[in-house]
Structures are given as C-alpha cells and as structure tokens.
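Hi, here's the filled form for the chain we discussed.

Project: internal
Contact: R.S.
Residues: 150
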Amino acid sequence: MWSRADPARLARERRLLRAPWRLKLQGDRYAWVGGTLRAFHLGVAPPTRPAELIYPRGFPARFMEVRLIPDPPREQWGLLGTHLNVDGSACFISGEGWTPQMTVQTALNLACDWWFNFWVIVEQGRWNLSWPSEGRVALSPEARAALHRR
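And the returned structure, exactly as it came back:
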C-alpha cells in the first residue's frame, strides 16, 4: 500500500483538505468522504454534490477515483458524452494527464470542473455543448442566463 511505502506523502495528503472532508480507511484504500463538489462559473452555480475521493492501490502513479454520492443512474455509466466510467465513477482526467506529483487537492479541483460540466451537459440536457479537454464548458450569455434561473 502506498501509504506504508511513503508515510510522508500520506502526512502531506492529510493536510490538504479540511472539514467537512474526512480521510478514512475503507478496506485497504484511503478515501476522503463527507465533502461535496462545488462549482461556480460565470454566474452559474450547480447544486453542490456529495462525493468521495478514493486513492487507488497504485497511487500516486495512478489517478484518484471520484464517485458521486449517490451514484448517477446506471444507464449513464459508460455512455458516450457523460464522462462516466463503466463503473459509474467520474472520468475527470485521462491517464496520461495525471502525474505522481498531483495530490488530492488537484483531484478535487479537477473533479469540481468535471461536476460543473456534467451538471450542465448531462443533467441539464445541454448535449449540444462540447465537453472541454480541460476546465469548464464555454457557455453563451443566453445559456448562462437560462442556467442561472434554475
């Protein structure tokens, strides 16, 4: 387990997030639980969404897993355009986009961008918008106004 191999890294990771996030050992993996994904962009603020940030067995070489609580509907898992993996976790970064220097704070920031895009494109049915390779989806003033009213 990475936390035994690098206790200094675990200590650094522990200092990165604050309450309500709590670091828990779940089986043989650590996970940050109790927190929410928050996003605000150009006057549009999706509702906060509870999530878990889970360290994989191969961390830090492998990227973290992000799971919404509760899981999105099963019919969306693996569906092209939803950016949900086949297990229901968020597809918030490509494997080659993750580096071992990245932390849980990096994962949280990327997950908040992903949540904004998922809420706009999937949950609000704005399938005509392009999912950005990074950051948050571009919104026209009309789209911003319509989403702001929700």
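Let me know if anything looks off before we file it.
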